[in-house]
Specification:
GO terms for molecular function: 2-oxoglutarate-dependent dioxygenase activity. About 25% of the residues lie in helices and about 15% in strands. By secondary structure, the protein is α+β, with helices and mostly antiparallel strands. The chain has a single domain, classed as q2cbj1_9rhob like domain (Jelly Rolls, Sandwich). Strands 4, 5, 6, 7, 8, 11 and 13 form a seven-stranded mixed β-sheet that branches. The chain has a four-stranded mixed β-sheet with strand order 3-10-9-12. The chain starts with 17 loop residues before the first strand and ends in a 19-residue tail after the last strand.
Length: about 300
């Protein structure tokens, strides 16, 4: 059991979560446990170590997150992605088509912008990460921001992050930040309960059989010993059954931040929002600046960069 349980949420999500053509059964789903940042960094660190994640409620100013959401969709509007004449902070998807090529190019511009860098490095988060990592925190240059349309089949398969960051320290922390409210039906991140121990085991098994690989191949998520894309699986119900555990979901709100271990297995589900809201989020990686840094992450994110 988690020591994170101030108030355990025992009910199952009321909305059916789905990904890759499969629906998660109610008995294999549950809720993440929320954490109030006011409990202090030592208690937060213990929760993270025990559970593989910590869902920090309202760590960031909500108004600033909503303002940034508005800014992002304002700059994506010319692609046809957002409903014409709508409030950009709502992020309502256009009922028609959009120029995906233009949207991809614009997204690559946004992740290189001073505004995005400032959002990721805002003082409440930077100060917290210094405390959490017990030193000077290093924010990797390669940072990802994603939008997902309602009704899109797009969902991230199950994986753990160290697969893509093997060239540096394993003492990494991922921060996943919902840019706006992301209730369960919008398909935010789901976590396989207790799976940080599974990730450690999987990575040890990979190292044991990687003696035939070159140094470059050993750190690659796409080497001959890995599944396609570095994924663990696209079949979320099967994984829950196989490991006799649950996928944990949450009704995320603007201002929340989720930290997870590089070994914690996670995925996303499809955006089924009936109000046609676009899901927008960013995931960024931290480590102590004194630990070895994976040099492949010293460049901005680019589509197709194989990381």
């Amino acid at each position: 059991m988690s020591i994170a349980a101030d108030v355990m949420q025992v009910q199952k999500p009321e909305f059916s979560l789905a990904a890759h053509g499969r629906t998660l059964p109610a008995e294999r789903t549950g809720w993440l446990t929320p954490t109030d940042p006011a409990i202090g960094v030592d208690a937060i660190r213990r929760r993270y170590q025990d559970d593989g994640y910590v869902w920090l409620k309202s760590l960031l100013p909500k108004a600033g997150v909503i303002d940034f959401r508005r800014w992002v969709f304002e700059h994506l509007a010319e692609t046809g992605l957002v409903e014409s004449g709508s409030d950009f902070s709502l992020g309502i998807a256009s009922a028609g088509g959009f120029d995906k090529s233009l949207a991809d190019r614009r997204l690559m511009s946004l992740v290189r912008s001073a505004a995005y860098e400032g959002f990721c490095a805002q003082p409440p988060l930077a100060r917290f990460m210094d405390d959490f990592l017990q030193g000077i925190s290093y924010l990797h240059k390669r940072k990802l921001m994603r939008f997902i349309q309602p009704g899109s089949p797009t969902a991230t398969p199950a994986h753990y992050d160290l697969v893509y960051l093997r060239g540096g320290t394993s003492r990494l922390v991922t921060a996943w930040i919902p840019i706006g409210d992301i209730p369960t039906e919008m398909g935010g991140l789901v976590y396989l309960e207790g799976s940080h121990a599974l990730g450690v085991k999987m990575e040890a098994e990979f190292r044991a059989m990687s003696g035939d690989l070159s140094p470059e191949e050993r750190i690659s998520a796409y080497n001959s010993h890995m599944a396609e894309g570095g994924w663990v699986s696209k079949d979320l119900p099967d994984m829950a059954e196989r490991f006799d555990t649950r996928w944990l979901a949450a009704d995320y709100e603007a201002g929340d931040v989720v930290l997870h271990s590089p070994y914690m297995i996670h995925a996303s589900t499809i955006n089924q929002d009936r109000s046609r809201r676009l899901r927008l989020s960013t995931d960024i990686r931290y480590q102590n600046v004194d630990d070895e840094i994976d040099v492949r992450w010293n460049n901005h994110w680019s589509l197709g960069d194989m990381l």
